[in-house]
Amino acid sequence: MIQGFCITGIILVVFMAVCIVMMGRIKKEIVNTMRFLFAVAILTVLCNIAAVLTVEGEEYFAMLMHGLYFALTDWLVVALFYFAKHYTGYFDKNKTVVGIFSFFSIVDTISLLANLYFKHIFYCEWTDIYQGTLEYSCYAVHTRMPGYLSHILIVYSMALFVMGVFFVKARNTIKLYRRKYDVILYSFVIILGVNIVYRFANIAIDISVIFYVLLAIAIGYFGLLYIPKGLTARLLSFSVKDMSMGILCFDLVGNCIYVNDMAKRLFGQAQCKDYEFFEKYYADWLEEQGDEELVDTTWREQQIEGDKINYYETKFKRLLDDDGNFVGAYFSIVDMTEEITKYERERYRATHDELTGIFNRVGFMEQAHMVLENDPDTKRCIMYVDVKDFKLYNDMFGVEAGDKLLIKIAGIMRQEYPENIVYGRLSGDRFAVCMPVERFDEQRITDYIKTAAAKDGNDVYHVHIQLGIYFITDPTMDVSVMCDRARIAIQSIKSDYQKYAAYYDEKLGDQLYKEKKLISGFEEAMDDGQFRMYLQPQIAADGTLLGAEALVRWMHPVDGLIPPIAFIPLFEQTGYIHKLDMCVWELACRQLAQWKKMGREELHISVNISAKDFYYIDLYETFTGLVKKYEIAPKNLKLEITETAVMTEMSKQLKLLDRLREFGFHIEIDDFGSGYSSLNTLKDMNVDVVKMDMGFLKKTEHQDRSRIIMDAMIAMSKKLGIAVITEGVETEEQVAFLRTAGCDMFQGYYFDKPMPVEQFEEKYKVS
Ligand code: C2E
Ligand code: CA
Ligand code: CA
Fold first, then answer.
1. Per-residue CA distances from 531 to 304, 521, 590, 609 (Å)
2. Is 204 helix (H, G, I), strand (E, B) or coil?
3. Contact predicate 497/675, CB 8 Å
């Protein structure tokens, strides 16, 4: 018996020692608490074995070993508490309980050591143990009250507390994990039971020691290694169940083995109890695949639900075993509706114009490219649509009206070009349409635009829209280049209010090239003095010379004389015009100064002011500065302004003109009677001279009526105290008529074309 006990004890001690060494490799805090527990358990067993094996006559040693064994049971419970603390996560930051446990254990240990002398807890006596016959002899423990009771109380209360900790944890944890705590709890109860029996049955050998070790081993296993049976599977199934993805699993022969809630919902089978529906789905799907070998695939599907479209992405995957044999398959279905709708929304925003809802530049280019690529054989054209003077329109009627106009144009396109025709708003007031050639009908679309785009309720202002058409010859060409070409076509009719449509041809391409060359040559031309001032005489009704209009010419070193019409509009677009104008004004002033010196102070020069100049420079400062610099009379420098130049920011510009007039300059309205000119202008603008445009009269078929109008305009101007000059006078007959009508001054080829200053001076004897 005694040998059996000792051998068992030693085996367990060795086993635990090995465990301690092995556990050393695991770096976890809980392992440290376990090693502490195992170490105390080893000592407890060794002390108990030593006590039992003490030979007769060594009573003192037996007392010491028993005393240590009793003290170590205290520390075993302390170690257990340490472990419980980490294992359960309770008392994480709490040091009080450990403090109390340690205090009592220390007190009890001291008391047990003192027992060697005072024997107030127990004493040992050499005893023969009988079990039927004499079994063995050893130093048995005889307890003394109340000393022993206090030791028992300390150990058991601490042990009960630790048990309580495990008990509470076991009750509060989810069912799956409860076993981890329960096993420890039960082992604990058994040990306590055995221990109580040992204490009160007064048996010399404390068998519970063996159970201590078993407890330690149970703790080691359940604390570190044990994963509740089925936990993995159940956790996996939980995660699959809760997935936002639908999962359907099938075995080798097509039986459905699992369907998660999401899949049921996606298939509209939330309430279904068996898997019949899904098995049929799989069978049908397999049939659709035909005889081909099954492979993993992914596909997307749409489902229309009322006015909503749902998008799903389904994956089919085979399940293979380690040897690659087919053992089953599963489908995963993801509801992509939100992502796809979001993507589509973003895409829509990127490719559509917010204001009109039709394609924007990006959308138009993409879509047109796609159409041309998919069907390169159909002959198509690009129609570029441009609202003339849209900025002016915006300024006159407000941005809201401007927006309305754009929406209206988009509406026309929607109505006219329902399918298979791509249209979009490229920028500001520019639209483009890509359509089969036979759908382009110039008459129809211009008529349409003329009526539909008229400003509602405004009889004076008519929206003028121009079209540029490019017939696509090479469908692989960049769509933006095609649009450029259509736009260039418009440029050729830009200043012609009678024309609505223009077609691109190669010549226009050359023109674009030439224009680019002119723009890039500007700076150099300025530095080189290639811009010259030409003068065209302005003659009084009695034939005397009054002055001249300064008209610029570009003396190009290679291309020769370039007329202003070829570069002025370009420089207006690129913002160079004010530099050029300032150069011409300077030349004019220098000329006036020279004439003054020659005693011809009565002659004037009219200079042109571009509408753009109003934006780029301070006209007041510039002109007053110039006349001061050249010491000339401001009335000799006449300022030619078109009505459109002052239309934007009207009141500001009118104030500027008033200040210039106050300073002494004469203001002329240029091109009166062309373009947007209205009689209203004369009411608001304080001007000195009105310059009638002969072109206006020439273009009409009813000459008589035109002359009546012209007659009236001259009469009206005179009544307002405004002088009248007519330009573009080419015939004697015109001169005669204008003279009778009361026109004060004339300018035109009838008298002279614009000419270089020297020629002018020579011819008119200005020297
Ligand atoms: P504009 O100010 O209306 O100038 C009158 C234009 O009519 C001049 O053309 C002139 O040569 C032309 N002309 C004069 N008499 C007759 C005629 O009897 N019959 C015909 N058919 N035409 C006649 P030009 O010099 O080619 O100038 C064209 C336009 O270029 C000018 O029109 C003006 O708007 C602009 N321009 C010319 N020089 C300058 C300048 O220095 N600065 C600015 N901003 N614009 C200028
Ligand atoms: Ca002019
Ligand atoms: Ca003019």
1. 69, 12, 15, 16
2. coil
3. yes
Kindly report the CA angle at 287 between 283 and 288, in degrees rounded to 5?
120
Instruction: Say how far residue 527 (Cα) sits from the centre of its chain.
Output: 48
pLDDT of residue 274: 82
Read off the tokens for 427.
């920028």
- The model's pTM: 0.49
Tens digit of each residue's pLDDT (9 = 90 or more) over 399-456 = 898 898 899 889 888 888 877 899 999 988 899 999 999 888 888 887 877 776 565 5
CA of 584 to the centre of ligand 2 (A): 13
Q: In this model, does residue 736 exceed pLDDT 70?
A: yes
User: 727 an active-site residue?
Assistant: yes
DSSP state of 109: H
Could you give the CA distance from residue 730 to residue 694 in angstroms, rounded to a whole number? 9
The minimum-distance atom of ligand 1 relative to the CA of 693 is 3
What long-range pairs does 540-547 form, CB within 8 A, spacing at least 24?
540/744, 540/745, 540/746, 541/739, 541/743, 541/744, 541/745, 541/746, 545/603, 545/764, 545/766, 546/602, 546/603, 546/604, 546/745, 547/603, 547/604, 547/605, 547/606, 547/636, 547/638
Q: What mean pLDDT is reported for the chain?
A: 87
Closest by CA to 543, choosing from 758, 761, 746, is 746
Compute the distance from residue 693 Cα to the ligand 3 centre, in Å: 6
Where does ligand 1 bind, in terms of residues with CB under 6 Å? 536, 551-552, 563-565, 568, 577, 581, 584, 608, 610, 670-671, 727-730, 748-749, 754
Cα 741 to chain centroid distance, Å, stands at 68
| Ligand 3 center to 671 CA (angstroms) | 4
**How far is Cα 227 from Cα 234, in angstroms, rounded to an integer?**
12
420 Rama class: left (phi>0) / alpha (psi -120 to 50) / beta: left
